[in-house]
Each structure stands twice: as structure tokens, then as C-alpha cells.
Specification:
Layout (H helix, E strand, L loop, with lengths): L17 E2 L2 E2 H10 L9 E4 L3 H8 L4 E4 L8 H7 L9 E4 L3 E3 L1 H8 L6 E6 L9 E5 L2 E6 L8 E9 L4 H9 L12 H8 L4 E5 L5 E3 L3 H9 L7
Parallel strand pairs: 3-4, 7-11
Antiparallel strand pairs: 1-2, 5-10, 6-12, 7-10, 8-9, 8-10
Helix pairs in contact: 5-6
């Protein structure tokens, strides 16, 4: 809903806010298309102002409407939409992320065999999800104390085909978890059973998550860094 962006999102979906005359989510989708991802293989899980997303992209894509979007966080969103998770290589991406195509290429790589997240291990930022790492292995993800964190999750994750069954099984079993949980809580559960979760460090590439006016101004200021 983008409530921290104040008046900008009262009439406009957060992901449709423009950076250099292009909506955030449109830029992301076009980046995936540049790696030969077809319309039929892209699904939007919608809630707030869902009709605006459909109008932006039109036919050929897949849409899933989650009616309780204002009452839960994205763990329960994904549980509700679990049927869109097919047994094939799958990327799950937040819709308010800006980064370069070179970063997207790291997660599109067909050689990825483990559940893999994109992370920035160059520093620890407040305001975005933190990760604890042992080299390239994820130890923990979530609202971690800064002193215990190695960096930040940038909001893009890949589930290889052979790992979809275990991911989806743990997802569906999470239906009784707290309504405020993020879907990344599944990764912590998988780590508990010794499932290896890989981190691809995107540093020094630029990225930003648009949560508030400060983030938006920063993205506009650094738009040249998104071209690389």
C-alpha cells in the first residue's frame, strides 16, 4: 500500500511510482524480459489497487488477487497464492526494488542449484531485511540486531526446480504462523533442517528498496547507477 510514501500512494499503487518516467515494477518486468522471460511465465500477486497493475501490463501475464492484503504480511499472501508456484525454476521478487540488469542476471543463472537469495554484504542498512551469513551461506534472515547482521536481503530469491517441493511444503505448513511474518521465515525453517540457502553478494552493484520519500529521492539521485 506504500503508506509511508504519504500522498503519492493514495491514488497510485506504490510499485507504479515512476523513476525517470518509468514505473518501478515496469522496469523490473522489462529487466526480466531482457533475459527472455516470457509474459506467460510472469505472475503478479496483487492486492491494493490491483486494477492498476492489470491496466499497466494487460493480457498475457498471470494475476492472483489476495483479498486480505491489508490484514497480513507476505507470508500469508504467498500461502494463499501457492498454486502459482510450479515445479520449475522460480524467482520471487518484491515489486519495490530498483537495481541493475547485471544484478538480475545473477539470479537468472540456470546453473543455480540451491535456494538462493540476492544480498548486499558490503554493509548493514536499517529499514530493510537483514541477513546473517557464513561466507555465501545464509545463517538467518529477518529483523536481526544490527550487530549480528552481515548485510541485507535485497528482495529477490530463486527456488530451483528441484527445491520447489520442499519450499512449497514448508510454505503450506506455515499457515498458522503469525500474520505479520514475511515469507522469508520459510528460509529460517529450512535452515533448521540443514537445507543450504545460498547468498549471491551483489556488492558493489547499486540497489534500493523504495519504502519512503527519502528512498525515492535517493533513487532519483542515483538513477545513473541502475543502468550498469
Amino acid at each position: 500500500m506504500g503508506s509511508r510514501l504519504n500522498s503519492l500512494t493514495k491514488k497510485t499503487h506504490k510499485a507504479l511510482i515512476e523513476i525517470d518516467k518509468e514505473p518501478i515494477i515496469t522496469r523490473l518486468v522489462n529487466q526480466f524480459h531482457s533475459f527472455n522471460i516470457k509474459k506467460k511465465d510472469i505472475s503478479f500477486i496483487t492486492g491494493y489497487k490491483s486494477e492498476q497493475i492489470k491496466k499497466e501490463f494487460g493480457k498475457g501475464y498471470n494475476y492472483f488477487y489476495y483479498k486480505n492484503y491489508s490484514k497480513t504480511n507476505n507470508l500469508h499472501t504467498l500461502i494463499s497464492a501457492n498454486q502459482i508456484l510450479k515445479k520449475k525454476d522460480t524467482v520471487i521478487c518484491f515489486s519495490d526494488i530498483l537495481t541493475s540488469s547485471s544484478v538480475i542476471s545473477k539470479i537468472i543463472n540456470p546453473k543455480i542449484s540451491k535456494i538462493t537469495i540476492l544480498g548486499d554484504l558490503s554493509k548493514v542498512r536499517n529499514g530493510t531485511m537483514k541477513i546473517k551469513a557464513n561466507k555465501n551461506n545464509l545463517i538467518s534472515i529477518g529483523k536481526l540486531p544490527r550487530i549480528q547482521s552481515s548485510g541485507n536481503y535485497i528482495g529477490i530469491l530463486k527456488i530451483p526446480q528441484k527445491k520447489m517441493d520442499i519450499f512449497k511444503n514448508f510454505l503450506i505448513k506455515s499457515k498458522n504462523k503469525n500474520k505479520d511474518y514475511y515469507f522469508t521465515e520459510i528460509l529460517n525453517d529450512l535452515i533448521q533442517i540443514k537445507e543450504k540457502i545460498n547468498i549471491k553478494n551483489i556488492s558493489p552493484n547499486y540497489w534500493i528498496e523504495i519504502d519512503n520519500i527519502k528512498d525515492l529521492r535517493m533513487a532519483i539521485k542515483n538513477k545513473s547507477k541502475l543502468i550498469i
